[in-house]
């Protein structure tokens, strides 16, 4: 049996011993904290590989990100509510796990995102999430959504009146959102409707009409 200290024959073309060079490799770097260990050359068959070990003692395994001196913005939220008149409410829309609810929710989120990104709140707007589809008057579908925007500590409060005007204009007077027809008296922005925002007042609230009133006989 050969001893443990025996070596491969010198004529073997496959494996040769590794040689540690005594010289150190010099690195052109401006950082004094970066050091490199001696280069190692080893042979494996006809191929020669070169390896080095570089250490960065000033770096840790966990990344830390420093924020600027300015106060960090937070998320502000507001609600948008309206009624769709050409989407009859069904039991599928009552179930948030149903395919119809999820499909309607995706489309509604996309339409609201597109609309608000083009408004004055667009630069700080983040997203809208449809939270509920409810039974509305005349078997229509009521939409509840919560929208988020970046809010600086020193920023002015949300301009509900201006935002209401813009949503109204971009939905053709609260009548159309994408393929959906809207009840023009159903829009609420952050819990307020047009009358409470001072846009117009009516002595008596208008009652929803599901069907045309019968004409009076002559």
TrEMBL record:
Pfam family, one: SEA
PANTHER family per UniProt: MUCIN-16 (PTHR14672)
Name used for this protein in its record: Uncharacterized protein
Source organism of the structure: Corvus moneduloides (New Caledonian crow)
């Amino acid at each position: 049996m050969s001893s443990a200290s025996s070596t491969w024959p010198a004529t073997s073309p496959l494996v040769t011993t590794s040689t540690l060079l005594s010289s150190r490799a010099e690195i052109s770097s401006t950082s004094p904290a970066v050091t490199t260990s001696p280069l190692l050359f080893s042979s494996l068959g006809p191929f020669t590989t070169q390896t080095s070990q570089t250490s960065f003692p000033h770096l840790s395994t966990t990344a830390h990100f420093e924020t600027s001196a300015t106060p960090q913005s937070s998320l502000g939220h507001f609600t948008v509510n309206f009624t769709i008149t050409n989407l009859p409410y069904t039991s599928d829309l009552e179930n948030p796990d149903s395919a119809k609810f999820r499909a309607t929710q995706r489309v509604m989120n996309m339409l609201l995102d597109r609309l608000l990104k083009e408004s004055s709140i667009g630069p700080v707007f983040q997203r809208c999430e449809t939270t509920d589809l409810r039974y509305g008057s005349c078997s229509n579908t009521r939409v509840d959504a919560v929208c988020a925007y970046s809010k600086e500590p020193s920023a002015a409060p949300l301009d509900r009146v201006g935002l209401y005007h813009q949503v109204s204009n971009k939905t053709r007077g609260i009548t159309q959102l994408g393929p959906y027809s809207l009840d023009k008296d159903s829009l609420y922005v952050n819990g307020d409707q047009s009358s409470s925002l001072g846009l117009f007042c009516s002595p008596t609230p208008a009652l929803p009409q599901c069907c045309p009133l019968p004409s009076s006989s002559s």
